[in-house]
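From the pipeline queue, job 12 of 40. The input is one protein chain; the requested action is below.

Action: predict structure.
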Amino acid sequence: MSLTTKVGFLAGAAVVTLSGSAFSGTSADVSYEDLQQRLDAAEAKITELSASQNAEWLTEQRAEQVRGLVQDVLADADTRASLQGSGMTAGYNNGFVVSSNDGNWMLRVNGLMQNRWVLADTGQDTNLTGLGGVGRDSHHGFETTRAALNFSGTVAKDYHFNMRLNWTPYNGATGPNGSTGNVPGPSQLEWAYIQWDLSDQWDIQVGKQKHDVMHSYMVNAENQQVIERSLQTYYWASSSITNGIKLNYDGDNIRANVMYSNGGANGDGTYGRDLASWNLSGRIAYLGAGTWDQFSETTSPQGSESGWMVGMGWNVMDLNDDNLPAGTDTDTVWQLTWDAAYDAGGWNAYGSLSYGDDGNQNPTSLITGVDPAGHQWGWEVGAGYYLQADWEAYVRFEWLDPRMETAPNEDHNNIEILTIGTNWYLSGNNAKLSLDWGYNFDRTETAAFGGSGYTDWLQSNARNEWVLRTQLQLYF
C-alpha cells in the first residue's frame, strides 16, 4: 500500500470519526477532549507510516548504489584481465597461463623441485671424492636432484613450443666416481623443440627432445610413481635426449611416431661432434580404454578413470667409426621394447621388456677390448595401491643382463633390484613426500649405467648394495 493511499485512508477514517461525533454531539458520552485524543492518534499513525515509507525508499536507494558499485568493480576486473585489445586472460591451469581468449596465443610456465636425502650402502669401502684413500662402505647426505623451469605454449594457433631449463648435479654426464650415463648433457637446457600442427592428428617436432620409445622414459620425472626411473630404463640408448626431427600421429586409440636424430651419443645437441652417423627410432601405442592423458603419469588415484594401454618401440643407431681408434669397426646398435600399463582407479600395474644389441660399444668393452657375446635384455614390473586418498604404496622389480664382462668367459653382472616405497600426496600432485628402499640382489657396477646419478646407486663390485631415499617434490 502506498503512502498516499495509507494517508488518505487514515484521513478518511478521521473525517468519518469526527463527523460521526459531530452528528452525535448531543450525546453526553463524547467530549471535546475525546475528539482531540482521537485526532492526535491519527496524526501519529500518519507520521509513523510516512517515516517507514521513507526508510524503505532509502533502503532501495542503497541497494541500487551497491549494485552499481559491484558492476563497476567487475568491469574494472574485466578490464585488468584484458591485457590487449583482443582480450588476454591469465590464471592457473596445469601451470601459470597467459593466453588470448581464442587460445591461439598461449604461454604456460611450470616449475619442478626435487630435494632428496639418500643413504647408500655398497657393502665395501668406496671412495667417492677422487682424492685417494680407502673410503667407506656407506654414504649419506642431501642433494637437489632437479630444479627445473618449463616453458610451453602456442604461437599463431598451429605452432607450439616446449622448453625446459634443468639444474641438476648430474648435468654434464658425471656421477659418483666419475661415472657417465644418459643424462641431459652439459648444458642446463634439458629439451627445447618446436611443434608444427599439420592437421588435427599429425604434427612435426624439431629440436632437442626425448626419444619417444620407452613409456617409462616418456613419463616426465615429476609424474613418476617411484622416486626415480629404474636403472633398467636408463641403460638403453633410447632413454636419453637427442636433437632431431619427429613425425607424430595422435589418434583416439592409436599414437605413433618416427624420428631421425643425432642419436643418444649426441645428447648435448652439438652436431659437430658427429658421434653417430645416423639414428632412427619410433613407437606405436594402442589405447584400449581410458584417456591418453592419464598415462602421462604412473599412478591411478582413487576415483580416477580406469584404462589400459600397450605399446612397442624401436631404436637403431650407427656410431661414426671415424671418431674411434683406427681400425675400429662398430656394430649397429639396436633395441626393441614392449610395454603395458593398467589403471583401475585406486591401483595400477605396469611392465616392460627390452631386447637389443649395443655391439662392442658396451660401457666396459671400449676399455677392455672384450666384445661380450650375445644380446642385452631386461624387464621390469611395478604396481601401486592407494591405502587412502592421499597415501600410496608401491613396489617395483627390475632385471637386466647388460653383458658387462671385463674378461673372456666372465660371469654376467646382472641387475636384480627390488624397490618398495610410499608416496604421501600433500597437495595432489603439486606437493609429494616419498620414501623408498631399493636392494640389488646381484653383483654389478651400477655406476657404469646411464642414469646412475639420478637413481643414487653407487659404484659397487659387491653383491647386496642397497639405497634408501626420501624425496620432497614440489611441482606447479
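Job complete. The chain is about 20% helix and 40% strand.
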